[in-house]
Amino acid sequence: MPFAETKVYFDGSHYIAIPHTTRPTKRRPYKIEETITVQEEVKDSTENVEPSISLENDTEDIKEITNLEEDTKEKVIEEEQPKKVRRTTKKELFNELYRKYIDLKKNERKKMIVKEMEAYFESKQQCIDFVNNNFERKQRNLICRRIRMVRKANLVNFNYFCTFTYDDKLHNEHTFKKKLKTTISHFAVRKNWKYMGVWERAPETKRLHFHGLFEIPENAMVGELFENSDYNLNTHRRTKTIQNTFFNKKFGRSDFEKINTKEDLNREISYIIKYIEKTEEKIVYSKGLYQYFISDILDEDVVSRIGLEDKKLLLFDDFKCFDEGEYIGKVSLDTINKMRKCN
DNA sequence: ATCTGACTAAATGAGTATGC
DNA sequence: GCATACTCATTTAGTCAGAT
Are A117 and A88 in contact (CB under 8 A)? Predict the structure, then answer.
């Protein structure tokens, strides 16, 4: 077999195989982060309540940190002020500030972070370098997440774009999030649903909801879908939506929009990408989403060599899939389902 | 049904190399 | 100087068994 056990992904229009390689260079061990001591303005009881989403406390937090900044200089390294002080690392502090100033333009954001972190460095230049490096790190990480998400999305067959939110009579934000998470992850295991999505807040109401792409296999739907005619307050029009009895009953409100075309899907994918880029929220993935499937590839199925140093193989649209030399079939979603997967 | 804690799969993060 | 892609390390978060 010319190319055994390649990793194959779909870029939206072509299949691309990556023959196995090993890393030529040695890795350096991760460096251990030096801890620093940060002065904390009194108690921060809000922090434990909802750690993942805390956009609305911004103004308060800014105040806290600016207070902190005035008198940090003398206690950069050693602490001993039981309550008001916490130990952290420069990187963690950077991450907090990076999130805090998420709405600023890049340069403004850098400036503010440098301003607030300068005290922990020997010179301003060192701080600037640190901040620049960490911006690069954040950017790289974001790109990684984006690529992974697109590859995963391209290897499944999403058929619904769903939105779930809750009724106050049934849930609070916390129970809603928790329950929905377990519900859909159960469906992933028990009914083979696949999904990827994000937690968001409606801009006006701040109400938490979940937006996601779902692959719901035939006969694996729960409840009943029904058409609902609604008056939309934003557009001042009656809009028809498809809702689901199971989710409505359990959470309050659901919306099942059928994905019919590739364009629909691409629009939704780029929506989610934009959203994670803007907010740094994480993507919620179901189990069973992979970036690659593993197949042996024949010479005759390779169109050309592409990518960095021509390491990747561009494949014909109907190339043949082999698992450990055993022919599985020409590529199709069906065939892919039978192949081994990896990330 | 819900919790707890050990286990582990999968996601994110990091380091490096390269391209445009 | 930013964007991309690859591999591998670390962290996070599902999962499952057992107890209540």
Answer: no
Nearest DNA or RNA nucleotide to A95 (CA to C1')? B13
Mean pLDDT for A251-271 is 83
Helices (H) and strands (E) in chain A, counts: 9, 17
Report the pLDDT averaged over residues A246-269: 84
- A306 CB-to-strand C distance under 7 Å: no
Q: Are A341 and A290 in contact (CB under 8 A)?
A: yes
Amino acid A237 CA to nucleotide B15 C1' distance, rounded Å: 53
The answer to whether the beta carbon of residue A201 comes closer than 7 angstroms to any atom of strand B is: no
Per-residue confidence band for A56, with pLDDT thresholds at 50, 70 and 90: very low
Q: How many Cα atoms within 13 Å fall on the side-chain side of residue A137?
A: 11
Residues A148-160 have a mean pLDDT of 82
Angstrom distance, A151 CA to B18 C1': 21
Average pLDDT score over chain A: 73
Rg of the Cα atoms in chain A: 24
Structure tokens at A322: 């082999």
Cα angle A342, A150, A10; round to 5? 65
Q: What is the pLDDT of residue A22?
A: 54
* pLDDT at residue A309 in the model: 60
Does A64 score more than 50 pLDDT? no
Determine which helix (DSSP H) or strand (DSSP E) holds A337, and give its type and residue range.
helix A333-338
A141 CA – B14 C1', rounded, Å: 9
Residue A168 corresponds to which amino acid?
Answer: D
Q: How far apart are CA A165 and CA A84, in angstroms?
A: 38
The full set of domain ranges for chain A reads: 3-23+298-342, 39-145, 156-285
